[in-house]
Amino acid sequence: MAEYILDISGLNKRYGNIQAVDNLELKVEKGTVFGLLGPNGSGKSTTLGILLGVVQKDSGDFKWFGEEPTASQRRRLGAILESPTFYPYLSGIQNLQIVCKIKEVPESRILEVLEQVGLANRATSPFKTYSLGMKQRLAIASALLSDPEILILDEPTNGLDPQGIAEIRELILDIAGQGKTIILASHLLDEVQKVCTHFAVLKQGEKIFHGTVAESLMGNEGVEVLADDTESLRKVIGTFPSFIDMKLNNVGRLEVQLSKETAIHEFHEYLIEKGIVLTHLAYINKSLEKQFLQLLSAKS
Ligand SMILES: Nc1ncnc2c1ncn2[C@@H]1O[C@H](COP(=O)(O)OP(=O)(O)OP(=O)(O)O)[C@@H](O)[C@H]1O
């Protein structure tokens, strides 16, 4: 049976006339990378704030490790809610020494966590010389100092360039590989698609979807084709019996939607019979983006 590390029921938070969290029900399984996905203002940060005891809930309950929240339990959680403040002139090590004192964690952990986040070679450089990605990795190192069972991250790749995003993604997967549960809030579908195992979608504080990433990505969205003569290709595709729709994409290929039961080899054979030779044929993989946008518009 699944072991739930977090169980939220009927959680509510209102700011004036804004319902930031609306009767939220959510369970997170141990060992998963859980993405809390939603557009700006959908209540992700407020939810994480409540779960970490820094925002007061109006009503509802949540349990960490199957128990009512307590201060000692919170020590089992490592979190970065907003960019932590580090001292710019102090090195990575010196900054983490301060965190160790505050968290009452032995300093012997420092080199271990710096190694883990790939900052060991810059451990003695002043924080102000770090790139944005390195600063974020130091923040994650800081959250890992107490060796928490759960790591909670709010928009961990915000403001980073593609390389920085990829580094953080690798790091999250690496930490998850060590058996830790990770809960991350994000408005980036790609991020959730690439690192999360499970996700929930929030809209105006309300949960509108909850499921696994693998199931959401199952199947395909159609095929992408290319031939030397695009106009003839278009005409012939339009006569294929299970044709639904097609459009030219940004790289000049035709994206074709066929009815679900269509076998792609039949489609290909049909084109050959009609004298069309394809120079490219590929499945279009499902993305969370399309489904996310459909979910959001369906519930508006
Ligand atoms: N302290 C506050 N006072 C008043 N309104 C607030 C406060 N904090 C959040 N809100 C409002 O509550 C709603 C949810 O905000 P929240 O920051 O939780 O969303 P979010 O999904 O994390 O958004 P973002 O991705 O922009 O951080 C928003 O409408 C926001 O304006």
TrEMBL record:
<dbReference type="InterPro" id="IPR027417">
    <property type="entry name" value="P-loop_NTPase"/>
</dbReference>
<dbReference type="Pfam" id="PF00005">
    <property type="entry name" value="ABC_tran"/>
</dbReference>
<dbReference type="GO" id="GO:0005524">
    <property type="term" value="F:ATP binding"/>
</dbReference>
<dbReference type="GO" id="GO:0016887">
    <property type="term" value="F:ATP hydrolysis activity"/>
</dbReference>
<keyword id="KW-0813">Transport</keyword>
<keyword id="KW-0547">Nucleotide-binding</keyword>
<dbReference type="InterPro" id="IPR017871">
    <property type="entry name" value="ABC_transporter-like_CS"/>
</dbReference>
<dbReference type="InterPro" id="IPR003593">
    <property type="entry name" value="AAA+_ATPase"/>
</dbReference>
<dbReference type="InterPro" id="IPR003439">
    <property type="entry name" value="ABC_transporter-like_ATP-bd"/>
</dbReference>
<comment type="similarity">
    <text>Belongs to the ABC transporter superfamily.</text>
</comment>
<feature type="domain" description="ABC transporter">
    <location>
        <begin position="6"/>
        <end position="229"/>
    </location>
</feature>
<keyword id="KW-0067">ATP-binding</keyword>
<protein>
    <submittedName>
        <fullName>ABC-2 type transport system ATP-binding protein</fullName>
    </submittedName>
</protein>
